[in-house]
Amino acid sequence: MSYSQFSCAANFLRGRKCIFCGSFKVNRTARGYAKCRKCQRQKSLAQLRREIEILKGFYQQVPAYRLATDLNLDVKSVTRVYQKLRTLLYHTAELEGTVLSGQIEMDEAYFGGRRKGKRGRGAAGKSIVFGLLERDGRVYTKVVPDVSAEQLMQHIKAKTRKGSVYFTDSFRGYQSLKRYGKHHTVNHSKSMVDKKTKNHINGIEGFWSYAKHILYNYRGVSKYHFPMYLKEIEFRFNHRKDNPFKLFLNLFFGYDSP
Ligand SMILES: [Zn+2]
Hints:
It contains nine helices and eight strands. The chain has a five-stranded mixed sheet with strand order 6-5-4-7-8, with helices on both faces. A three-stranded antiparallel sheet has the order 1-2-3. By secondary structure, it is α/β, with parallel strands linked by helices.
């Protein structure tokens, strides 16, 4: 991991910059606290260093138990930081509330469970995710109870601009889409790109691989916790061109960069 990714934490770690408000008007107390003259808040530098180390681990997707061993910490201290950040990411991703437009690829995917397969018997015990991806833009994901046309259309109407250009596979759940925008279907039972029309949904397919790769790293995410992990992945994907570590710091400590 490059130095530059984490260099945004340097002034916080040295007690020169306030982790809460970003001010440089910081005093270091005899007890090892960084105390801000602007927002009046203070923080133990030892604790701050520990939390930032844990946030680096989160950024690098190190499982909590392994990071605890690496840093010689109680696994609970690591889990507390991970869960707090994951909750913040969940709410931030939901509140960002972007409405997608232009060319939008949509697909469903099935996560977890033991059996392979989708839309049929193999889906038992799995989490069903509906994904919408704006080409060259953002992705939005939603854990859904089923893939009925009603369910899919409800999220399409909430999250995309009417009149967009939609790309899906030929699943019948998308049949009424043509009344809402321009609808292209991709017959990709044999190849990823429809040979006749050259239509594809490679963007959302790429996102599914990205998500599965990250989840594989975390191993054994329960169905209960899955929606949180999914939003974390969505956030990472949508901010892949920013520095996610910096965003994690800002979110976790409430620091707002001017
Ligand atoms: Zn401050």
